[in-house]
Amino acid sequence: MKFQSISEAVExxxxxxxxxxxxxxxxxxxxxxxxxxxxxxxAEGGLLSIKRAPDYIKVKTVKSFEDINEVYDYLKDxxxxxxxxxxxxxxxVAEVVLSEEKKIAKDARQAYGALAEQMMNLIRKFRDLKxxxxxxxxxxxxxxxxxxxVTTYLPSMPGNNLTQNISYLFDExxxxxxxxxxxxxxxxxxxxxxxxxxxxxxxxxxLAQKEKANMKHIYNKIHGIKTEPKKEPVKKEPVKTETKxxxxx
Length: 249
What we know:
Helix 4 runs antiparallel to helix 5. The protein has a domain at 6-166: Rossmann fold (3-Layer(aba) Sandwich), CATH 3.40.50.12240. It is built from seven helices and eleven strands. By secondary structure, the chain is of the alpha/beta class. The chain has helices spanning 6-13, 27-31, 65-77, 90-104, 108-127, 160-165, 215-222; strands at 16-20, 38-42, 57-61, 84-88, 133-138, 140-144, 151-155, 172-180, 186-191, 201-202, 210-212. Strands 1, 2, 3, 4, 5, 8, 9, 10 and 11 form a nine-stranded mixed β-sheet that branches. It has a two-stranded antiparallel sheet with strand order 6-7. 30% of the residues lie in helices and 22% in strands.
């Protein structure tokens, strides 16, 4: 019987994250910040924002639940070389599944029940892929508490069951936020810890509450990989040589 150390098991499992945010904050852009060979499973259709992504970022567009399962089978069985897989977005995937279930269900409750079961199984399958990092992006929903009046922002999925339970499937849940600084410049960051109105968590314990919106940065920080800041090349001043004047006698 073979046993692993905790660090070995964590490394084999890979980093599994869920990021949610409002439309237009840059979730797809975040998908192209891994710095390694990456497959984006595109269910949204909006890829214009990453048209200048590096060549190691590949895309597979999916239109049905069968398409997604085919991609999973490929990732599970083939020597594909990808270090990251991105599902962009899991909310859109769920809407595709719900549409298919409504066509065959006798009533809406049956369709939503089948949706919850299929999506939980799908998320677990991709989450449990070995030796690969997986990022799920999701739309954002807001939930109002009738008693306290507090509005909570959390990942958006069709059906209350999925919306309330999806975060429990991940160790890392982030909120992608865009803010403007005093000069009106946009700044994106990932919120990694829960606040009174934001659903987020960091089980690694390695992240600050606000982190750079870059998945390579997140991976390195969680795994304790220090990256040296880029040093600007030192400009050398030209060496001045003195020329001796000679006089003819």
